[in-house]
Amino acid sequence: METRRLGKGGPPVTRLGLGLAAIGRPAYINLHRSRDLPGSRSVAAMRTLAFGLLDHALEGGIRYFDAARSYGRAEEFLAGWLDLRGLRGGAVVCGSKWGYTYVGGWRMDALAQEVKDHSLNQLVSQLGESRRLLGDDLRLYQIHSATLESGVLEDREVLTRLLTLASEGVVVGLSVSGPRQAEVVERAMEVSVDGRNPFTAVQATWNLLQTAAGPALRAAHDRGWGILVKEGLANGRLVDAGEGGGRVAESASRRGVGLDALALGAILSQSWCDVVLSGAVTSRQLDSNLEALRVTFEDDELSELTALAEEPAEYWARRAKLPWS
User: Fold this and answer.
1) Number of folded domains in the chain?
2) In contact, 68 and 28? CB cutoff 8 Å
3) Mean model confidence pLDDT for the chain
4) Of 279, 317, 321, 288, nearest to 33 (Cα)?
5) Contacts for 232 with CB less than 8 Å, ≥ 6 apart
6) Average pLDDT in the 102-111 region?
7) What range defines the domain where residue 222 resides?
8) Is the model more confident about 170 or about 34?
9) Which of 52, 97, 160, 317: CA 20 to 30 A from 79?
């Protein structure tokens, strides 16, 4: 699979990566999970699912894997798989995030699944946890869903610790969500601590229903940052709910691929995008996602598809109403 450098001096990463948000914990925000996951969502069942999917991803050429401290046992599953398969020492690239704590207690009906904390103490604590599990295979570490409101991009203590992490050879980045994604990316590019900016990567939501962050991501890419894209299927809306209209279905049918491959292929066609994350939970879904690598577009057709995008406030309001399932 084609690779790209993840920012200036960063490791080579495959164009398609595997995100572990949906397989590291029993509940996630994605449509129709009950039809894809095993009847039991016990820790043992989810570990077995994760190991099988990681094996299949490796066979398919994927070498980038994305986790977070708040993804339940995602880092634990990933670390156990690396050990079992003898993949330590750079065979793959692992990324993770700090800033949210998983509090779901492995329950579907928990009142909250994760709690946000962008403090220095949280960074130090969660970085230690991530490193104990992933060791030197942790090559990208990101602020999880950085926002302007949290003040994390003005927190000198946090930024100084992130600079130290970057000096240790870890790519430092941030993930963003919500209608102000572009503003957060723009602010992150302006960050300076003693004349230095710790960030060289950003992970954002971009898909056929939400394209607003595109110009900011292009600017970050032009600056030399690595760009990763999450939620390429809009939490299942572009596939399970059949949203996007007949134009998407017709384009997919003409190419002989699924709606998922078409949607992910549209992201890969953006010149600024380095990695697109698959959120597959089954091997069948992952195989279908991998078909995105052979999807190409004419400029006018891609423009027609991206014209389907909703206003940011509308898109994120709809996402906020999706249940944990």
Assistant:
1) 1
2) no
3) 95
4) 279
5) 206, 207, 263, 264, 267, 276, 277, 278, 279
6) 95
7) 3-320
8) 170
9) 160
